[in-house]
Write a structure and sequence with these properties.
Layout (H helix, E strand, L loop, with lengths): L1 E8 L4 H17 L4 E8 L6 E8 L4 H9 L2 H5 L2 E8 L3 E2 L2 E2 L3
Antiparallel strand pairs: 1-3, 1-4, 2-3, 5-6
């Protein structure tokens, strides 16, 4: 199984998010081997981000929490988050159900 992380931007962090985005992207690229899926939550017009979703390939909540703790967005104070176990049912246009 894996863990899903849902990130919610704190109020008024748009400039901070933009400033830290290059470091966040570098962090994500350095950890591609651990990430099943990841992407931003956007406003309806697709112009502004207000959070994100990530599915991390791990069986350890502690590893998931450590991953978040090292993310420049978290270190910089951009977001709060929740973590939950995730069971794959449908992914990449495929069913994994029996």
């Amino acid at each position: 199984m894996a863990y899903v992380i849902i990130f919610y931007d704190k109020h008024g962090v748009t400039d901070l998010r933009n400033q830290l985005r290059p470091a966040h992207i570098d962090y994500m690229k350095a950890n591609l081997h651990r990430i099943l899926a990841s992407g931003g939550l956007l406003s309806d017009d697709g112009e502004s981000a207000h959070g994100g979703v990530m599915i991390l390939d791990t069986d350890s909540r502690a590893e998931t929490e450590a991953f978040v703790a090292e993310d420049p967005f978290f270190i910089g104070g951009v977001y709060t988050y929740i973590i939950s176990r995730w069971r794959k049912a449908f992914l990449d246009r495929k069913s994994y159900l029996p």
